[in-house]
Amino acid sequence: MRLAFTSDIHIDINGPNVLEALVARVRDVRPDVLLVAGDIATGAPTLLATLLALKAEVPHLLLTAGNHDVWSGKQALAKGIDAWAWLDKLLPALAAEAGAVLLDAGPVRIGDLGFAGSLGWYDLSTREHTLDAPEEAYRTGRWGGLRWNDFEYAVWNGPNGQAMEYPDVAAVLRERLGAHMAALDAPRLVVATHVLAFEEQIQRRAHPGWRFVNAFMGSFALGRLVRSDPRVVLHVAGHTHHGSDHRFGSLRSVVSPLGYRGEWKGGTPAEAVRRALTVLELPG
Question: Cα dist. 134→88, 127, 137, 140 in Å?
Fold first, then answer.
């Protein structure tokens, strides 16, 4: 099976010529399965148009949600359209309309490979405890002049109508992923998470602001879940915009994002897409 994957394509920000370049590259490599590990676009019209364009080129289009994919503005939030509404209602409907599979909603088996996936969320296990930032900063996403925008736009309301704490959201999504993995009757699994799952994938730098936002990079408990199932041969992640490729025994974990135009360090959209779209041949 030829699998192509990437993440963080941000078509609403990067523009239609980036989508055109991605479609052309997918057409060239002719994968059996295309997997996009989140941050496709903010907003239903652009997201649907992106999925329709990609699905036209592949037999199977799989995706996970990204944090930007579950954003809502103040007016939408006032109408009850929070991150749960995006993840559990709107995104599954958009994926179905495009003929794609949202892995957050359930796993899928293609040949001998099972695919499971999740947006995942931040349980603060990735934070740097030596940083002199108060606990309130991690509860609000604000420290100094920094603001982590998910706290404003990705609001997860609980049954009582109050916003859930991020570690609680992470636990719910991790439990869902575990159930999806367990439900797969397949000899080998590919697991995709939008957020990071392993320390080796996190960019540790000296700048205090960078050290602060590392708290919102992912969840090491996700990594333990992925490694707990010996059937998992490949883990795909995104979110960081920094590519990496690591092996943990028989497990390979790859981050292969496109990211924002300003992060490409020159080059055309076609060149950026070529670097970002990883293609692997997997048994199955």
Answer: 33, 12, 5, 10
Give the per-residue pLDDT at 284.
78
What's the pLDDT tens digit per position in 90-103? 999 999 999 999 99
Q: Which residue has the tokens 């992912």?
A: 218
d(CA 131, CA 5): 34
Asked if residues 148 and 141 have their Cβ atoms less than 8 Å apart, the reply is: yes
Distance of CA 213 to the CA centre of its chain: 17
What is the CATH number for 16?
3.60.21.10
- Cα separation, 120 vs 217, whole angstroms: 10
- Distance, in Å, from the CA atom of 168 to the CA atom of 112, rounded to the nearest integer, reads 34
13 Cα distance to chain centroid: 16
Domain residue limits at 58:
2-281
Residues 6+ apart with CB under 8 A from 27: 57
Distance CA(168)–CA(160), nearest Å, equals: 14
DSSP 237-259: E-SSS--EEEEETTEEEEE-B--
Give dist(CA 97, CA 21) in Å, integer.
23
- Report how many domains make up the chain: 1
Query: What pLDDT does residue 169 have?
Result: 98
pLDDT tens per residue, range 90-138? 999 999 999 999 999 999 999 999 999 999 999 999 999 999 999 999 9
